[in-house]
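Exercise 7b. Backbone tokens:
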């Protein structure tokens, strides 16, 4: 299940997911949202993922958008279901998990690209993988290294102790996570901002704090009418990596990323992920 054509500009590594919703099934995961975002921003995106043969249709949308796909056939597809109580609190259930993805599963021509985005969702990437990409901009959205689950699949998010995959990150790393991932704990923020030279911590629809070589800057978000916040963090991270690679300025990149995410949540699923013209228009306020 491979569409290898050449060398992409933006590579995402992680599981595409089967998200079980009240109205049916939807493709999810950082791989889906980030690859579509990069493609719509004008880069040639590629995905290395793993899923069951019967679920390969989950990759139809990204393929139709022009994304190149290398999918490892697995016995199962990583499957999530979200259960909400009367107060709106979410319990996340993982009912199946695809095969792990190793560095050797990445096509050789895809290992030397401008931007590599490691986006694990369910512990599927080896913890040493960040140290194997040395010449690119290495973007990391680490939620999948911060998830664990019990025998019934109930997912727990834990930022402490820091996952081994996030220790000793190389100098080309840009780490993106949310304050919710850190349990809103100031001491954990202090620990995580020292893990990479560039770190962004988002606050949902609020501002993001960009830590660049020890300097912190607040970057406000754009107003938005939210329809579906799913994938907003992935779109933000992708736009951030793309613009940072172009400008070398993390604050400029964060403003661009905020605009992209603000547009993306104004439609269901991936339908509103914007192109570059749309992002620039939102930034102009027109």
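Sequence design result:
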């Amino acid at each position: 299940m491979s569409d290898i054509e050449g060398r992409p500009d933006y590579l995402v590594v992680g599981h595409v997911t089967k998200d079980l919703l009240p109205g049916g099934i939807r493709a999810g995961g950082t791989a889906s949202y980030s690859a579509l975002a990069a493609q719509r921003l004008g880069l040639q995106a590629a995905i290395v993922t793993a899923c069951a043969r019967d679920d390969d249709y989950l990759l139809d949308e990204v393929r139709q958008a022009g994304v190149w796909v290398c999918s490892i056939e697995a016995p199962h597809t990583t499957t999530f279901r979200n259960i909400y109580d009367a107060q709106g609190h979410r319990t996340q259930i993982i009912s199946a998990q695809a095969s792990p993805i190793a560095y050797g599963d990445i096509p050789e021509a895809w290992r030397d690209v401008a931007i590599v985005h490691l986006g694990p969702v369910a512990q599927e990437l080896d913890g040493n993988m960040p140290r194997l990409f040395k010449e690119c901009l290495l973007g990391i959205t680490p939620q999948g290294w911060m998830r664990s689950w019990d025998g019934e699949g109930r997912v727990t998010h834990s930022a402490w102790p820091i996952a081994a995959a996030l220790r000793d990150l190389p100098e080309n790393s840009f780490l993106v996570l949310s304050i919710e991932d850190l349990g809103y704990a100031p001491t954990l923020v202090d620990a995580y901002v020292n893990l990479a030279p560039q770190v962004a911590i988002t606050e949902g629809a609020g501002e993001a704090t960009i830590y660049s070589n020890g300097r912190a800057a607040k970057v406000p978000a754009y107003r938005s009418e939210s329809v579906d916040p799913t994938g907003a963090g992935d779109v933000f991270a992708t736009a951030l990596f793309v613009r940072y690679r172009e400008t070398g300025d993390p604050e400029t990149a964060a403003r661009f990323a905020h605009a992209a995410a603000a547009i993306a949540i104004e439609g269901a699923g991936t339908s509103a992920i914007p192109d570059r013209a749309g992002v620039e228009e939102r930034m102009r306020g027109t």
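Instructor comment: The chain has a mean pLDDT of 94. The CA atoms of residues 9 and 44 lie 5 Å apart.
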